[in-house]
């Protein structure tokens, strides 16, 4: 087998592997940013829910009798 062709093929495989690893790292960073933003939204929403008062009675609105 030709050594030059083998060397080029291995080099191309290495470049492709490095590119896929870079894309995976970017995806992981994006996921981390989204998770951080989601946690921040939940933390900012929680105090507002506590100020609104207690939760309504869960039994209200469960049954509805209608006569026509």
Structural overview:
The model has no long low-confidence stretch (mean pLDDT 84). Helix content is 72%, strand content 0%. The longest helix has 49 residues, at 3-51. The protein has one helix and no strands. The chain is elongated and about 90 Å long. By secondary structure, it is mainly alpha-helical. It comes from Acetobacterium malicum. This is Motility protein. InterPro entries: YjfB_motility.
What's the N-to-C terminus distance? 89 Å
Poorly predicted runs: none
Order of helices and strands: H
Largest sheet: none
Number of strands: 0
Q: Please report the number of helical segments.
A: 1
Average pLDDT taken over every residue: 84
Strand-residue proportion: under 5%
Structural class: mainly alpha
Overall spatial form:
elongated
Query: Helix proportion of residues, in percent?
Result: over 70%
Q: Tell me the Rg in angstroms.
A: 29 Å
Structure described in brief:
It comes from Acetobacterium malicum. By secondary structure, the chain is mainly α.
């Amino acid at each position: 087998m030709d050594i030059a062709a083998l060397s080029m093929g291995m080099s191309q495989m290495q470049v492709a592997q490095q590119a896929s690893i870079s894309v995976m790292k970017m995806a992981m960073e994006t996921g981390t940013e989204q998770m951080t933003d989601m946690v921040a939204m939940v933390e900012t929403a929680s105090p507002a829910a506590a100020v609104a008062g207690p939760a309504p009675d869960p039994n209200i609105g469960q049954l509805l009798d209608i006569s026509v």
